[in-house]
Amino acid sequence: MVGSTGLSSSSSSHHHHHSHHHSYTPSSRILTDVPCKVCHDNSSGKHYGIFACDGCAGFFKRSIRRNRQYVCKNKGQGGCQVDKTHRNQCRACRLKKCVEAGMNRDGKSIPPFFQSH
Q1: Whose CB has fewer CB within 10 Å in the chain, the N or C terminal residue?
Q2: pLDDT (tens digit, 9 = 90+) per residue, 66-79?
Q3: Residue 84 burial class via C-beta count within 10 angstroms: exposed 0-12, middle 13-18, buried 19 and up
Q4: Which segments carry the region annotation Disordered (predicted)?
């Protein structure tokens, strides 16, 4: 009798462990069906208010945190192609496209005391 109860409790705890393991998958990083609004790469969800890939989100974060002023490679004319292939070639146009796509630093978890008013 004792053996059978021991067996059922161990199987239920095993089942619980399995379901916990199943819920803990890296699928939170699975890319969404919505492309990055900046470079049209696979986005990883919303960053700074728009769907964006980790690359553009990280680029935007670094740019605003360091208050970067980029100069367009195209003699300052703008209009450089910003896509998955070319997004790293002109940071000025990439940042401009981030902003034009709707990215803003208030869109995502930057603590208020970091913001300069």
Answers
A1: C
A2: 999 999 999 999 99
A3: middle
A4: 1-28
